[in-house]
User: What shape does this take?
Amino acid sequence: MEPLAIHRAPGQLELVRALINTKNIEADGEEWQTSEDLRAWLVAHELLRGDHPLREADLSRMQQFREALRSLLRANNGHPLAAGSTAALQDLIGTATLQVVFEETGDARLEPAAGGVDGVIGRIMGVIVAAMHEGTWPRLKACFNDGCQWAFYDISKNRSGRWCATTICGNRLKARAYRARRRSE
Ligand SMILES: [Zn+2]
Assistant: This one.
């Protein structure tokens, strides 16, 4: 399912990229069909304890959270940020509060203050806020192809990458544009 390994994001940001790609828009694939699928994914990515029960409401909240993040990734790729999308994201974050934890070295980090899905969302938001400060966030993009929207990390020098994989999406789109031009001639 991964187009190219070079499009993985650095550090913890890869977790965000992986989360968004649990839905494959092009193939109409959904890894989180049931709350049990979601639980297994979260446990495998060390975001949830194995014995933590999840409800249907948790599943739909996580699916909505994922798509709200995808809209931010589309904005990172030059699409206008859809009206109300940050307000919707804020609603989904809701009770997923973060706390500042000081380490013995004097460094501070953000940790989720809640468990369950609140803890998962808090952890992801902590990663995103850190990436925004580090400057890696604008490189995490959703493929410019509306039929794809695969999350990828743009490694181009001038941050101009638009497609999840040039050899796949880019070429296919160019071929489609070429055919459309020929038809209209
Ligand atoms: Zn793509």
